[in-house]
């Protein structure tokens, strides 16, 4: 089980770098009274169907995302675009090496979000810098309402809290809400939100963003 949470992208403030915008957000949280609770990291590697498999079976290529989340150190998540999410144990990565005849790792596409965790009352907030290679590409904000696993019971409360430090950049209802509003939320739902956020940031990469260092 996982408590209901929202994962969203926050735009870089005008005239600021990614890092300066992250600092503005975390300062707002600290003014509210949020306390630092360590760090977090979510990473994602992209695999595409090997060319030999496509030509021999006449299939169209599929993308698979293999993801890790420091909140679940013993798990690995394998997600297909518009498809299921498989939760496996941490050595799933070794299996992917053995499957390289079927899935090729698109190494240049590795993306991760890394940052600080904050606790504020019943909320857990993670503000992350999203990086691809050596440069910062964007900002992710994950907000979790810890006592609740049913979306319908807490979305308004979550939204109100997000507006308190994200202002008009607070997100709308995430796509997983459509299928989950009355059912129990799980870790895979969080990973789907990160996958969607990472793919959105990848698509925005025609314009380089200021580096974090």
From TrEMBL:
Which GO molecular function entries does the Swiss-Prot or TrEMBL record give?
A: transcription coactivator activity
**InterPro entries cross-referenced by the UniProt entry:** Mediator_Med20 (IPR013921)
GO CC, sorted alphabetically, is: mediator complex
Domain of life of the organism in this record? Eukaryota
Would the keyword Transcription turn up in this protein's UniProt record? Answer: yes
Q: What GO terms in the biological process aspect are recorded for it?
A: regulation of transcription by RNA polymerase II
Q: Quote the subcellular location field of this record.
A: Nucleus
> Which key words tag this protein in UniProt?
Activator, Nucleus, Transcription, Transcription regulation
The family this protein is said to belong to: Belongs to the Mediator complex subunit 20 family.
Q: What does this protein do?
A: Component of the Mediator complex, a coactivator involved in the regulated transcription of nearly all RNA polymerase II-dependent genes. Mediator functions as a bridge to convey information from gene-specific regulatory proteins to the basal RNA polymerase II transcription machinery. Mediator is recruited to promoters by direct interactions with regulatory proteins and serves as a scaffold for the assembly of a functional preinitiation complex with RNA polymerase II and the general transcription factors.
On assembly, the entry states: Component of the Mediator complex.
> What name is this protein filed under?
Mediator of RNA polymerase II transcription subunit 20
Instruction: Please tell me the species this chain comes from.
Output: Todus mexicanus
């Amino acid at each position: 089980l996982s408590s209901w949470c929202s994962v969203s992208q926050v735009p870089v403030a005008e005239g600021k770098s990614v890092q300066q915008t992250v600092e503005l957000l975390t300062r707002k949280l600290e003014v509210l009274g949020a306390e630092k609770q360590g760090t977090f990291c979510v990473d994602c590697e992209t695999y595409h169907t090997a060319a030999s498999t496509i030509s021999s079976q006449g299939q169209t290529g599929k993308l698979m995302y293999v993801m890790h989340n420091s909140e679940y150190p013993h798990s690995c998540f394998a997600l297909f675009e518009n498809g299921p999410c498989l939760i496996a144990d941490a050595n799933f990565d070794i299996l992917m090496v053995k499957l390289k005849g079927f899935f090729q790792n698109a190494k240049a596409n590795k993306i991760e979000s890394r940052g600080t965790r904050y606790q504020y009352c019943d909320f857990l907030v993670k503000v992350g810098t999203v990086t691809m290679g050596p440069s910062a590409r964007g900002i992710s904000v994950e907000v979790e309402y810890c006592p609740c696993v049913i979306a319908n019971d807490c979305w308004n409360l979550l939204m109100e809290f997000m507006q308190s430090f994200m202002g008009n950049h607070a997100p709308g209802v995430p796509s997983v809400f459509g299928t989950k509003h009355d059912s129990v939320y799980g870790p895979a739902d969080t990973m789907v939100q990160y996958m969607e956020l990472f793919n959105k940031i990848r698509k925005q990469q025609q314009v380089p963003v200021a580096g974090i260092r």
